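hey
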C-alpha cells in the first residue's frame, strides 16, 4: 500500500466497529497506532460500526470491520477493496474468507470458569443475550468447563439494555434466589454493570455474596462501576494493530 504525504492522497481506510464498546474503541486505537507509525493513513471511523455501513459511493483503499452477518459481509466485501475481519463470529458460508483477527471466545469462557473454580466457588451463573450465536458459544464454553468439574450453571437471558434503576426487576429476583456465594460471568461489561446495580438494589454484598466477572474488558465501564467490575482482558488494541498490519501487507 503506497504512502503519500498529502491528505487527499493518503490511503483511505474504514474502521467499522462499534465505538460504544471498550472492544471497539480498543480496535480503533490499535489501528490508529499502527497507522501513525507506518502511515500516514486517513481513517474513516463509523461510531455505530458495521451495521451503519459506509456512505453511498464511498471509495477507499481498505476496510477493517466486524463482519457480523452475511448481509453486512456481502456489502463490505462487495466494495472491491482489501478487507480484514475482526469479528469473533465465524461465517462459514462466507467464501472466500477474508483474513480474520480476533480473540478466542471459547478460551475466555473456559478461563472464566477456571478463575471461579480456583477461588473455591461452587455456585455459578451466566448473564448475557440468549439469542446471539457468539454469546451462546461463549456461554457454552463456560458451562462445559464447569460440567467437567462436576458443577452446574444458572442462566439469565439479559440483553444489551441496562435494568431500570429503582424499579423491581426479574434480574433482582433471580439474583436473590441464587445459592450463595456465586460467581457470575457476564457476556460484556454492560451486563456486568446491570448485575452490580441489581445486587445493590437486592442488598447483596459484592464480592462476598456475588462475584461478577465480565467476559470482555471495557476499561471505562469497569472503572465506573462500584465496586469496580473485573473483566477478562482480550487485548483489543493488539487485534487492531494486527488487522492493520495484515491490511498493509
Amino acid at each position: 500500500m503506497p504512502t503519500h504525504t498529502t491528505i487527499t492522497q493518503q490511503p483511505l481506510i474504514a474502521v467499522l466497529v462499534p465505538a460504544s464498546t471498550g472492544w471497539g474503541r480498543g480496535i480503533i486505537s490499535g489501528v490508529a497506532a499502527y497507522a501513525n507509525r507506518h502511515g500516514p493513513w486517513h481513517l474513516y471511523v463509523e461510531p455505530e460500526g458495521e451495521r451503519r455501513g459506509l456512505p453511498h459511493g464511498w471509495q477507499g483503499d481498505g476496510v477493517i470491520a466486524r463482519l457480523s452477518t452475511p448481509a453486512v459481509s456481502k456489502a463490505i466485501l462487495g466494495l472491491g477493496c482489501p478487507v480484514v475481519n475482526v469479528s469473533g463470529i465465524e461465517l462459514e458460508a462466507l467464501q472466500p474468507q477474508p483474513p480474520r483477527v480476533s480473540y478466542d471466545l471459547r478460551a475466555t469462557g473456559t478461563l472464566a470458569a477456571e478463575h471461579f473454580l480456583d477461588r473455591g466457588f461452587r455456585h455459578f451463573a451466566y448473564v448475557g443475550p440468549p439469542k446471539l450465536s457468539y454469546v451462546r458459544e461463549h456461554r457454552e464454553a463456560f458451562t462445559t468447563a464447569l460440567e467437567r468439574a462436576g458443577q452446574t450453571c444458572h442462566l439469565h437471558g439479559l440483553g444489551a439494555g441496562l435494568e431500570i434503576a429503582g424499579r423491581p426487576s426479574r434480574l433482582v429476583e433471580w439474583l436473590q434466589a441464587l445459592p450463595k456465594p456465586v460467581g457470575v460471568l457476564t457476556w460484556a461489561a454492560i451486563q456486568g454493570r446491570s448485575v452490580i446495580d441489581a445486587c445493590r438494589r437486592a442488598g447483596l454484598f459484592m464480592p462476598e455474596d456475588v462475584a461478577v466477572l465480565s467476559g470482555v474488558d471495557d476499561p471505562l465501564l469497569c472503572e465506573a462501576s462500584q465496586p469496580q467490575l473485573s473483566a477478562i482482558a482480550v487485548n483489543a488494541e493488539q487485534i487492531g494493530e494486527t488487522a492493520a498490519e495484515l491490511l498493509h501487507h
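Residues 162-168 have pLDDT under 50 and may be disordered. Residues 22-38 form the longest helix (17 residues).
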